[in-house]
Design a protein that fits this description.
The complex is a heterodimer of chains A (116) and B (171). Chain A is mainly α. Chain A has five helices and no strands.
């Protein structure tokens, strides 16, 4: 590493990461994919209006939030430490939301039964 | 009549029950343009609009109110599958229909609510309270089923619903 590199301010050094085209491509695909799945989940939630689908929709939203967090840390808004905490925090949120969605679907079904 | 308006009218004729965004997308027109021409067509009674679950669908006035409702419902893949199953056997128990369509009971019940509301399907109870599903107008329903097709986005939403309902039902 050249001595000149050390003189570059930290946020500028992070800006260099933005130039990685593969990472940008991955983020773009992840963002588009997550948005599409979130759109589907939202459409079904609007249709069914159940607690389960609300939770599933929120779980899918955490996927999109991961891409947002990654983008924010690429342009230097989030520090690497915050970035890691946010990403793994979102993992925890997603797992919790999926478990809650499955649990509440089961409970509603037992409580209400099938209408005939 | 302007060329754009004729194109809109032709699209509504070819795809009865098409909704506002579908029109703009399939004809590659700006929403404002579609809005203007559709308003003119509605004013001239050349087109009829019907709201169904938060969406405005457009039809030619030749369709009767029952047909318009039926078309809006039959644009859904799962509802179509349920109706197709009932057409084959005419009378069926809900559990059998859910089995042959391959959906969870919760999915079937939601679509049955819509089908019953649109007067496409009737729930008949025998003396023991057992339910059988009967098509109210089998011949007309079969004809309409052939005339409309679900959109790609619509199919995906239906399949997401099927998938999730099936997953939690087995959990």
């Amino acid at each position: 590493m050249s001595p000149v590199r050390r003189l570059v301010p930290l946020h500028a050094a992070r800006d260099l990461v933005v130039a990685d085209p593969l990472l940008l491509l991955v983020l773009a695909v992840a963002g588009l994919g997550a948005s599409a799945v979130l759109g589907l989940a939202l459409a079904v939630f609007v249709r069914r209006r159940s607690q389960s689908y609300l939770l599933v929709t929120l779980a899918v939203a955490t996927l999109l939030a991961r891409t947002v967090v990654a983008s924010l840390s690429l342009n230097g808004t989030l520090s690497p430490g915050t970035h890691h905490l946010a990403e793994h925090g979102l993992d925890v949120a997603m797992v919790a939301l999926v478990v809650a969605a499955v649990y509440s679907a089961r409970r509603v079904e037992r409580g209400g039964g099938v209408r005939e | 009549m302007s060329e754009t308006r004729e194109r809109i009218l032709a699209a509504i004729e070819a795809d009865p029950g098409i909704h506002f965004r579908g029109l703009a997308r399939s004809l590659d027109l700006a929403p404002g343009q579609v809005q203007y021409h559709v308003r003119e067509l509605l004013g001239a009674d050349a087109v009829v609009a019907e709201d169904h679950r938060g969406r405005t669908h457009y039809y030619l006035p030749t369709y009767a109110p029952w047909e318009r409702r039926a078309i809006a419902v039959l644009r859904r893949e799962t509802a179509r599958d349920v109706v197709a199953t009932l057409l084959e056997r005419d009378e069926r128990r809900p559990a059998d229909v859910a089995d042959s369509v391959g959906v969870a009971r919760s999915t079937l019940e939601w679509h049955l609510d819509t089908l019953v509301e649109a007067d496409l399907v009737e729930k008949r109870r025998d003396d023991g309270g057992r339910v059988t599903l009967v098509l109210t107008r089998p011949a007309e329903t079969g004809e309409l089923l052939a005339r409309v097709a679900p959109s790609l986005a619509g199919r995906l939403v239906d399949r997401f619903e099927r998938l999730f309902d099936a997953l939690v039902e087995d959990a």
